[in-house]
Amino acid sequence: MLSLPPLSALRCFEAAARHLSFKLAADELCISPTAVSHQIRNLESHLGCTLFIRHTRAVTLTAAGQTLAQSAQQAFSQLSNAVQTIQHAANQVTVATTHAFASLWLVPKLLEFQQRYPDIRVKLCADDKLNDLALDTSLDCIIRYGSFDATSKSTLLTREKIGLFATPAVVAQINTTGQLKVYTTQWKNPQLPVWPAEELLAAQFGARWQLYYFSDEQQAVQAALHDQGLFFGSELLVAGYITQGWLSAVTVCPLQLGFAYSLLTRKNYTSTAVETFQLWLQQQFQTSDDSAT
């Protein structure tokens, strides 16, 4: 590396060799043709050979110039690609979360984020498995759901609230319906805590209910939205439907069961884009919590 000539001289040479013109190279680099000529003469002096044959109105490469031009063009191309890759990564946030949280809560809110931060791209990786930042280096952060450990390195976003939700039409018939159909989720991830759905429903309706399990909250929510029964699950995931008036809370106060949503980011690396997304995410939850109080 110590034997390399100045980068500015190599840059001038690469541009001149590509255009076969000192003037066009000067226009590209926003300097004078004289400055380009001076840089190339210094480069030739450093190398101890001639790189261009000067004609009256043109230049051509010598054999040494052709060899250097090929390597210089490849090197600058690789540098340009590396810089673009780094810049792209710096402006992208790759987030892993569950299918239900991504579809029912995060995706509907991303338009507001994109309008506020148009230069930052959010890439979602929806998966119900337990992701690990140490094992998957493509992820920048993970939004997790489950029991929250206050001693962990994750950031608490909000405590979960569980309740019963249904369309206004179903709510109006609850007291006159013989057997209530209730739809909920049976977790794919065995590490997630189990909701005491049967005990809670028995306390609310006695024996007047039938519980149906889906593998994903989206399916259970869709059943409720189509007047098929009640959805038993996360208030957060149906908050948008409640705001629209499509669903209503059947329980007066959603049941506190100790579940939480938390955010996990890399310990030793972060970027402005990741920090911006984290702050925005926390603000979204803060706004939701404030409106609920």
List the helices and strands and how they pair.
Elements: H1 7-19, H2 22-29, H3 33-47, E1 52-54, E2 59-61, H4 63-90, E3 92-97, H5 99-116, E4 121-126, E5 141-147, E6 155-159, E7 162-166, H6 168-172, E8 180-185, H7 197-205, E9 209-214, H8 217-225, E10 230-234, H9 239-244, E11 248-249, E12 259-265, H10 272-292
Parallel strand pairs: 3-4, 3-5, 8-9, 8-10
Antiparallel strand pairs: 1-2, 5-12, 6-12, 7-10, 7-11
Helix pairs in contact: 1-2, 1-3, 1-4, 2-3
Concise synopsis of the structure shown:
The chain has 10 helices and 12 strands.
What does it look like?
The protein has ten helices and twelve strands. With 293 residues, the chain is α/β, with parallel strands linked by helices. The mean pLDDT is 86. The strands form three sheets. The chain has a five-stranded mixed sheet with strand order 4-3-5-12-6. The protein has helices at 7-19, 22-29, 33-47, 63-90, 99-116, 168-172, 197-205, 217-225, 239-244, 272-292; strands at residues 52-54, 59-61, 92-97, 121-126, 141-147, 155-159, 162-166, 180-185, 209-214, 230-234, 248-249, 259-265. 45% of the residues lie in helices and 21% in strands. It folds into three domains: 7-87, Winged helix-like DNA-binding domain superfamily/Winged helix DNA-binding domain (Arc Repressor Mutant, subunit A, Orthogonal Bundle); 91-153 and 259-292, Periplasmic binding protein-like II (D-Maltodextrin-Binding Protein, domain 2, 3-Layer(aba) Sandwich), CATH 3.40.190.10; 162-249, Periplasmic binding protein-like II (D-Maltodextrin-Binding Protein, domain 2, 3-Layer(aba) Sandwich), CATH 3.40.190.10.
